[in-house]
Design a protein that fits this description.
Number of domains: 2
Radius of gyration: 22 Å
Structural class: mainly alpha
Number of helices: 12
Oligomer: single chain
Order of helices and strands: HHHHHHHHHHHH
Distance between the termini: 61 Å
Strand content: under 5%
């Protein structure tokens, strides 16, 4: 009976305020734990985030939201920022089999090869074929970070120019997801520079 009386005494606006305060506290706690994880040098999450953003931009470009972005640049970006577990997976036997099947299909049945698969297959071919010197040294070096930032900057400038300005880049129907996706490309490289070199 006391419980029902307490429910009746709480005003709806006060209940909403309490819920929003609880959401804010939970968000703050998640942010603190994420910052602690990232500041400890575990920026694997940021690499995953940047890779997912790049894959998102490739997928969006292949759908009805066709953009004028040079999405071919996302292949070396993903190659440079792919999390080590995925890089090792595709560099192994799985990537070799995918590459072999792709080359066979492209040679003998070129009309059956879907155009949408060009960039993902190019990425897997690049992962498989790249020499160990490049795969081990460039991916985890300042040069790789600078190339990733240059790709992100170029795509951002190209997106803003194609939209007709910074405000229009956020106002167009497909502008917001593309702009956010491009901005997420900066997360991992900037944090790696901040963590290792500053």
């Amino acid at each position: 009976m006391v419980y029902h009386r307490n429910l009746l005494q709480v005003q709806p606006s006060e209940a909403i305020y309490q819920d929003l305060r609880a959401i804010g506290t939970a968000s703050r706690d998640i942010g603190i734990q994420l910052a602690a994880t990232v500041s400890a040098g575990h920026f694997g999450f940021l690499r995953w985030l940047a890779t997912i953003a790049a894959i998102f931009l490739i997928v969006v470009d292949r759908t009805h939201w066709k953009t004028d972005l040079l999405t071919g640049l996302l292949v070396p970006y993903i190659w440079l920022n792919l999390p080590p577990i995925l890089f090792g997976f595709f560099r192994g036997e799985v990537g070799k089999w995918i590459s072999l099947i792709t080359v066979i299909v492209r040679l003998f049945i070129p009309r059956k090869f879907p155009e949408e698969a060009e960039l993902p297959v190019s990425l897997i071919l690049l992962i498989v074929v790249a020499p160990n010197l490049l795969a081990d040294s460039v991916r985890n070096s300042l040069a790789g970070i600078i190339v990733s930032l240059a790709i992100g900057c170029y795509l951002l400038v190209q997106h803003i120019n194609n939209a007709g300005g910074f405000r229009k880049a956020f106002a167009a129907q497909n502008g917001i997801p593309n702009t956010i996706g491009i901005l997420l490309l900066f997360v991992s490289p900037l944090w790696e520079i901040f963590h290792h070199y500053l």
